[in-house]
Write a structure and sequence with these properties.
277 residues, 10 strands, binds ligand LARABZUK
Length: 277
Amino acid sequence: MPNPASPPRYILDEIVLHKKQEIAQMQKELPLTFLQNQLTTAPTVRNFLTALQENPSQPSLIAEVKKASPSRGIIREDFDAVAIATAYERGGAACLSVLTDQKFFQGSFANLRTVRSHVELPLLCKEFIIDPYQIYVARTAGADAVLLIAAILSDEELQAFLHVIHDLGMNALVEVHTLIELDRVLKLENLRLVGINNRNLENFTLDLGTTKQLLAQRQQQLQSLGITVVSESGLYTSADLSLVAEAGVRAVLVGESLVKQSDVEQAVRSLLRHDLL
Ligand SMILES: O=C(O)c1ccccc1NCC(=O)[C@H](O)[C@H](O)COP(=O)(O)O
């Protein structure tokens, strides 16, 4: 639990505090050596990055399996992770993102495992990674890619975790929200995939201008390094997708606006304008 004597500055502090306790408990139940032994029988890794690059004519969709969030509370009461994931797949998503945090997002590694066994698309484990142990948990549950959030990791941690992720054959989506964070991650070796989060996690405001502004300043550098950029959060319409595509992103990560629709498959088609083809 958060320490009331030093209240968290914002939600990420609270999440990280909780993660530390959660990881300590998980390590008691599932030691790292046990997970390492399980790697040989883990589902084969699918190439997350290649799947995002397949269709150059429009931004590829990473559709998120998301029941709840700190900013929105419960997004969908009748939440069925497999029904949502398979609807995303039928609708034309390139990849999926599965939230595994329980306390703040009502996600789980069980959801990641069950989604893995029902869809062919590459999966991102959407977790708050602060310890390499969690990367092994993600891989053994069937993840093909893992999120690293620059705001909660030092430069050294980012580089070390990136190595672990690549050694396990997976991709890393490295998330930034500010130019300072983007400049930090651009110094990493073997960086391939950057996510620009349009949500300010201090006050939860959403601004697609975040993607535009960061790309206006670093697009050339990102391009010359061959880095694929994903715009994350607050994307609702195909016009929103066009806006961030014009700014230079190759893919978008969308959760709430799809999850809350009664016909999720049709919502994906409309977002990608496949209903007009
Ligand atoms: O969504 C939140 O409220 C949130 C709070 C604290 C940390 C992270 C949070 N969101 C994670 C995400 O990046 C989004 O789930 C993802 O980009 C999809 O966003 P959306 O389409 O707006 O659901």
